């Protein structure tokens, strides 16, 4: 979709700018290694598309920038949305650096993981550096700071549950997925709505939509880890079983097809939350609907 690719390109450019000037150079190199290695950019794209679906405008090129900047309100929203999108991606990558250390995973997106490339200490420093750069992008708006802080608390609790409490039932696992993955998806969407200056109800509905998408994403991720091969995933497969890490595959006796249907149920609930907003037709709305379906169908 050309529309979405233009926004991803704008996000990619802003990510490069955000990590390109980090000092000292060694830290900047580590951040670039982590963030510029690729990725689907699902969360930052979600931020930008929610902003537009909620009535904001995000410029993606020079000509568009000139037109949007004639309207100060839209320009501010678009600039905020791009910054928040980049911040969300930096937070996500910071969490992946830690995940790879915990899992002893040497591969991430087809390249050496941060700790495998630089060592454990520099890997942890890189994660901290990513968080620092992210919060600098959120700092202009207290609502954005609160949103991201809440998501990090949930993410930290999810990691603790995974390592210590170890869910043993489907219900416990779904709560883990909500915190571990859904919380940052929720933050990504809420930040887009905040950038568009949406009202509280809209922020909440967009957040619910995204949280459901995130849970569906995590369920599908667990299924892929158990059924796909490493080359297709761009990272080691079978990690959950090898590390005895809780996954939906391990805590239920459902088949992969049944688990995919469970992910589909979350997708349908996400679409229901989106429908409550009664958004005007447009490419942003179309993509948000597509995303809820894609996370269930993806193969990598």
TrEMBL record:
It is an enzyme of class 2 (transferase). Its cofactor is Mg(2+). Keywords: Magnesium, Metal-binding, Transferase. CDD domains: Trans_IPPS_HT. One of its GO terms (biological process) is isoprenoid biosynthetic process. The keyword Ribosomal protein does not apply. It comes from the Archaea. GO terms for molecular function: (2E,6E)-farnesyl diphosphate synthase activity; dimethylallyltranstransferase activity; geranylgeranyl diphosphate synthase activity; metal ion binding. Pfam families: polyprenyl_synt. Its EC number is 2.5.1.1, 2.5.1.10, 2.5.1.29. Belongs to the FPP/GGPP synthase family. This is Geranylgeranyl diphosphate synthase type I. It comes from Halobacterium salinarum.
């Amino acid at each position: 979709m050309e529309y979405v690719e233009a926004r991803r390109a704008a996000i990619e450019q802003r990510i490069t700018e955000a990590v390109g000037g980090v000092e000292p150079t060694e830290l900047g190199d580590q951040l670039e290694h982590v963030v510029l290695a690729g990725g689907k950019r699902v969360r930052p794209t979600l931020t930008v598309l929610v902003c537009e679906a909620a009535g904001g405008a995000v410029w993606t090129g020079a000509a568009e920038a000139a037109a949007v900047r004639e309207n100060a309100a839209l320009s501010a929203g678009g600039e905020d949305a791009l910054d928040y999108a980049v911040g969300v991606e930096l937070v996500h990558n910071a969490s992946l650096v830690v995940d790879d250390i915990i899992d002893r995973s040497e591969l991430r997106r087809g390249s050496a993981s941060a700790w495998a490339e630089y060592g454990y200490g520099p890997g942890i420093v890189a994660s901290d550096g990513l968080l620092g750069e992210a919060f600098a992008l959120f700092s202009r708006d207290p609502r954005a700071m609160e949103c991201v802080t809440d998501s990090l608390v949930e993410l930290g609790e999810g990691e603790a549950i995974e390592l210590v409490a170890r869910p043993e039932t489907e219900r416990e696992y779904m709560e883990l997925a909500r915190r571990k993955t859904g919380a940052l998806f929720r933050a990504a969407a809420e930040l887009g709505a905040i950038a568009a200056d949406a009202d509280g109800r809209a922020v909440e509905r967009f957040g619910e939509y995204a949280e459901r998408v995130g849970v569906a994403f995590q369920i599908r991720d667990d299924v892929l880890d158990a059924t796909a091969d490493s080359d297709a995933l761009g990272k080691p497969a079978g990690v959950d079983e090898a590390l005895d890490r809780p996954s939906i595959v391990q805590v239920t006796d459902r088949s992969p097809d049944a688990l995919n249907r469970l992910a589909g149920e979350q997708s349908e609930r996400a679409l229901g939350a989106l429908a409550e907003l009664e958004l005007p037709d447009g490419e942003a709305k179309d993509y948000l609907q597509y995303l809820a379906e894609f996370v269930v169908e993806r193969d990598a």
